[in-house]
Design brief:
Domain Tetrahydrofolate dehydrogenase/cyclohydrolase NAD(P)-binding: 139-279
Oligomer: single chain
Binding site for NADP(+): 165-167, 231
Distance between the termini: 49 Å
Pathway: One-carbon metabolism; tetrahydrofolate interconversion
Domain Tetrahydrofolate dehydrogenase/cyclohydrolase catalytic: 6-120
Strand order of the largest sheet: 1-11-8-7-5-6
Shape: globular
EC number: 1.5.1.5, 3.5.4.9
Number of strands: 11
Helix content: 40-55%
Bound molecules: guanine
Largest sheet: 6 strands, parallel
Radius of gyration: 19 Å
Length: 283
């Protein structure tokens, strides 16, 4: 048996069609959602992600602009810019592409963004609201993963979710979101002993380590749902995930591919958060 593929690109396409309609209605009422993206430095991967985000906003009718700053921008220059964007009523969402150059404190920058414009969902205010279940911007990759699971009606309540990776962007918040859905959650990371002992107990396995093909079929229980968050570029230029797709697809019941998996869903949730920002976060 081969696993059913959760096609993130197709789901993203469907969701974006309905968002396009929603944006059109907002525009008729005189409100054009606007996202400002800030890119500091020349990192090619960041540049490519930013380009993808802008293409998606354009296609959905959301307006966006890109502010590019040189790699030697100081922390105070960036904070001043964010202050200005916080005050500008025509800017609904602010996204500062990470990582930032080392002279700039990432956490300080995240905390300087007005939480009502924090479409990444990284501000501690929004993380706190996510944990306590209030209205908030959910971080885009975890939100995309939750949407993918729900799109296939994959049961979450009472299921054992194992997450490999504990980043602030993916691992930690996705566990919290699935805990909110009544899953039992185990976090694994680089210091975890006997990884396989944990992963083979997972009903849903989420892999976000950033190393190609680390999860093989013998790490996965028969019938498990496998979500691959990794995006790794191989020497031949092709993209691959953290999961050995070809072997794991025979053991899993559902699996996300790379590309066409989680990536397109992350951007789609950014669009959703930008529309939400334009409409205003409730108190
Ligand atoms: N760098 C890698 N992923 C992300 C993301 O989701 N948001 C931002 N701002 N930077 C990133």
């Amino acid at each position: 048996m081969s696993a059913e593929i959760i096609d993130g690109k197709e789901l993203a396409h469907e969701l974006r069609i309905s968002m396009k309609g929603e944006v059109l209605e907002l525009k008729r009422d005189g409100l054009t959602p606007h996202l400002t993206v800030v890119l500091v430095g020349e990192d090619p991967a960041s540049r490519s992600y930013v380009r993808g985000k802008q293409k998606a906003t354009d296609e959905t009718g959301i307006s966006s602009d890109l502010i590019e700053l040189s790699v030697d921008t100081s922390e105070s220059e960036l904070l001043q810019l964010i202050d200005k964007l916080n005050e500008d009523p025509s800017v609904h969402g602010i996204l500062v592409q990470l990582p930032l150059p080392e002279q700039i404190g990432e956490q300080k920058v995240i905390e300087s963004i007005n939480p009502a414009k924090d479409v990444d969902g990284f501000h501690p205010f929004n993380i706190g609201r996510m944990m306590s279940g209030g209205d908030t911007f959910l971080p885009c990759t975890p939100y995309g993963i939750l949407t993918m699971l729900k799109s296939k009606n994959i049961p979450i309540e009472g299921k054992h979710v194992v997450i490999i990776g504990r980043s602030n962007i993916v691992g930690k918040p996705v566990g919290q979101l699935l805990l909110n859905e009544n899953a039992t959650v185990t976090y694994c990371h680089s210091r975890t002993k006997d990884l396989k002992n944990h992963t083979t107990k997972a009903d849903i396995l989420i892999v976000a380590v950033g190393k190609p093909n680390v999860i093989k079929a013998d790490y996965v229980k028969q019938g498990c749902t496998v979500i691959d968050v990794g995006v790794n570029r191989l020497d031949d230029g092709s993209l691959t995930g953290d999961v050995d797709f070809e072997s794991v697809k025979h053991t899993a019941s559902y699996i996300t591919p790379v590309p066409r998996g989680v990536g397109p869903m992350t951007i789609t949730m950014l669009l959703k958060n930008t529309i939400k920002a334009a409409k205003g976060l409730s108190d």
